[in-house]
Design goal:
With 449 residues, the protein is of the alpha+beta class. The chain is built from 13 helices and 19 strands. A 6-stranded mixed sheet has the order 1-7-6-4-3-2. Strands 10-11-12-13-16 form a 5-stranded antiparallel sheet, with no helix packed on it. The longest helix has 24 residues, at 43-66.
């Protein structure tokens, strides 16, 4: 099989046919593969991650020795991300020039079939232009590029053979579907246009599907606590698709399997699903004296520019008093910070939530922002003793503030810091389970003209 076998004469190539040869793996590469595997708890997946790492390093070495003009980008490669490596038994999302490549490590050239995970074929997020067999001879410290096939050819062969996925979400592909001449892969990578192999587009309803099944995921995902448990043993393929297409959920599973179970993990799962499914309001717009449509919909009101020396009237006056208290405690708030507030009603209790944001200047990371939250009442009454203010991001519960019974208090304070690609979910709750979840907060300071 070769996509270009009938067109070779059209290209003036300095192309030398190379016989299949073993790629020697260095001790440094073996150590790197071990380090990747050490991040996985399950024994079989730990071994698979080790083999996947060797396959990646061998393929990079093989390509570098033959074509030094093709760039390899491994940043999004699944084996280098522990949460994805923990769930995906091949090396997906490897960028080779303009092509996406999926490496399938195999144990022997004499196998008649090879298992291909359903997700790297049926989910656009992981589909590849080329699927490459890499025979890893771990004991010998070598590997061989033993075959490849294009996405289009797998799809066509699958239809002709009426090939269906197994219960464990894999396709058993006959090895004779693969082109055993690795030189043809080099030819394709050098000369073929990526558009010649059409990959599926990501469907636009991912969020709607996740939103529809999130209650089922809240009940099912905690069953994956054991590292020995596989996703296909607990979830349907639709549910698995929702997890695989939301890397935050894969990270939650990975973290969950490495921690001692506690009540906070399930709470964080609920918050995480809200972060993945709910639209976020952009507090970065506040720096331009603007509220986005979502903030307007939820009745947020902008506060005037922060000017410590000027006295203001309520609710601005109240917030000014709060800010003065925080500054006396050592919190530095720049003059460009902007805030807004929203009145809430929780179980008949009138509350007011103030939020302030600003861009954090840092030499190490210029894309940091902070969110300061202050929860009080619209009256002068103290807050209920059983009230809590919780802030979560995509990985964990960052802060959960309650009233100090001894000190009492009129306000709850919390402050979080994140990158521009991070979102925060804010929840206000009572002990009896009554809770308000606000739309997630995000920060994009660019002005919309």
């Amino acid at each position: 099989m070769s996509n270009l076998s009938s067109q070779t004469s059209q290209f003036d190539l300095e192309y030398e046919l190379l016989s299949p040869a073993a790629i020697n793996l260095s001790s440094e590469q073996v150590i790197q593969a071990v380090e990747l595997s050490n991040q996985i708890i399950n024994v079989s997946r730990k071994w698979q991650t080790y083999i996947n790492g060797l396959a990646l390093f061998a393929f990079e070495e093989w390509l570098k020795e033959r074509v030094d003009t093709i760039n390899i980008k491994r940043e999004k490669c699944t084996v280098l991300q522990p949460a994805l490596a923990n769930a995906i038994p091949v090396v997906a999302n490897l960028q080779v020039g303009e092509f996406k490549v999926c490496l399938i490590p195999t144990g022997s050239l004499y196998d008649s079939e090879v298992a291909l995970p359903q997700l790297v074929l049926d989910l656009p997020e992981y589909a590849a232009h080329f699927y490459v067999l890499v025979e890893v001879l771990e004991e010998q410290g070598t590997a061989i590029i033993s075959g490849f096939i294009s996405y289009q050819e797998i799809r066509e062969n699958r239809v002709r053979a009426n090939l269906q996925p197994e219960d464990d979400w894999t396709y058993q592909l006959p090895c004779n579907w693969f082109d055993s001449d690795a030189n043809n892969l080099l030819l394709n990578l050098r000369c073929l246009e990526p558009e010649a192999i059409s990959l599926p587009a990501i469907t636009p309803n991912r969020v709607q599907v996740l939103s529809r099944i999130q209650s089922k995921l809240i009940a099912l995902l905690p069953q994956l606590q054991s590292p020995e448990c596989e996703l296909w043993e607990v979830l349907t393929w639709e549910q698995g698709t929702a997890v695989f297409t939301n890397p935050e959920l894969l990270r939650w599973i990975y973290n969950y399997q490495q921690q001692t179970p506690n009540s906070g993990l399930k709470t964080n799962l609920k918050d995480l699903l809200k972060l993945c499914t709910q639209p976020a309001l952009n507090v970065g717009r506040w720096l331009w004296d603007e509220l986005d449509e979502l903030a307007q919909e939820f009745s947020w009101k902008l506060l005037p520019s922060f000017t410590p020396a000027v006295a203001m009237r309520s609710p601005t006056e109240e917030f000014q008093t709060i800010i003065n208290q925080l500054q006396h405690r050592g919190l530095e708030i720049p003059s460009q910070a902007r805030g807004a507030y929203q009145d809430l009603l929780l179980a008949g209790i009138p509350l007011r939530l103030y939020a302030m944001t600003w861009h954090l200047l840092s030499e190490n990371d210029p894309h940091l922002w902070t969110l300061l939250l202050v929860l009080g009442t619209t009256s002068q009454n103290t807050l209920p003793s059983h009230l809590k203010l919780r802030v979560s991001d995509q990985t964990s519960v960052l802060s959960e503030q309650g009233i100090n019974q001894e000190q009492g208090g009129n306000y709850l304070f919390t402050r979080v810091v994140g990158n521009w690609d991070e979102k925060f979910l804010v929840s206000v709750s009572l002990m009896d389970g009554v809770e308000i979840n606000l739309p997630p907060f995000t920060f994009y300071p660019g002005r919309v003209l």
